[in-house]
Amino acid sequence: MRDASPTDVSTGASAPLAHVVRGDLVESVHLGHLSAIDAEGASVLAVGDPEVTMWPRSSVKPLQAVAMLRHGLDLPDRLLALASASHNGEPDHIAGALEILARAGQTESALRNTPDLPWGSTAMRDWLAAGQGAEQISQNCSGKHAAMLLTCVTAGWDTATYLAPDHPLQVAIRETIEEFTGVPIATETVDGCGAPLFATTVTGLARAFARIASAPTRDPESPEARVARAMAAFPQMVAGGQRPTTTLMRAVPGLVAKDGADGVFAAGLPDGRAAAFKVLDGAERPLAPVLVAALDALGAFTGDDVDQAAVAALRERAVLGAGEPVGSVRPAF
């Protein structure tokens, strides 16, 4: 494992991404780094230092799926979307992960991800009510891990060590992330689910999502085009419930969006415009308002086919006092 880069998010010149307003006062400020680029890759909006090195966390799952497709993974769009997911653990998600495992001739015992309860509150309640606890199949990355096993079976690679950094699958993922972000990987660690995690920059992440989201037009037979079409067609499988990832992909045709733990979000549009950001304190509450503001700067919501009501509901997040709205979490730029 390499040491952290000296230009990580703690040393970059961060700037306000969101204000938490209660009454007439700003109560809290979420700092961070953001990059929004046009279809040619030129900067449209930069907040903080978009060139700092950061952990992209689960926002790179679409890139992991691209690497797997390049090495033989073959799934219908519904299951390919799940392979790119941080899912809620809803019944469709669990069933889909089991279906991928069955295609690989594997059982849940082959999964090496960290056991956890379903992520969604309703899914967790129902799971616990059924007498089940933290399991690998219910953890939010189980679709990705099942797809990793299927890729290994297809490619003839060892399945027991599929999470080892030097395993052919993880080497392929590393190479794909470097290729799509345009950023050499200088440091790596282990993600929450147990998979290798490779560092990149905020702008590099935006660049990668631009390539994926534009692929159906630019290179329609490519693996990245398959991932983009799958995610856009089945946003419920990518997240679930009322999560902003699912809501925004439903609201904006062709949008490819993916959140990541500790305050990361990225999204790309079909023409190659894209945005990515990292909230410095890792908070979840500003994610949707900040992403909507970044996509606003790109003109993402001007089409007649955009669900404006769904977008409007994500522009701010209510701050409550005695159970009633008394302020909001809103973009600071």
Question: What does this molecule look like?
Answer:
This is Asparaginase. InterPro entries: Asparaginase_II. It holds the Pfam family Asparaginase_II. By secondary structure, this protein is of the alpha+beta class. It has a domain at 43-70 and 163-331: 3-Layer(aba) Sandwich (Beta-lactamase). Helix content is 37%, strand content 20%. A hairpin with a 2-residue loop joins strand 11 and strand 12. The protein starts with 14 loop residues before the first strand and ends with a strand. The model is unreliable at 1-6 (pLDDT under 50).
Keywords:
alpha+beta, Beta-lactamase, eight-stranded antiparallel beta sheet, two-stranded antiparallel ribbon, 12 helices, globular, disordered N terminus, Asparaginase, Asparaginase_II
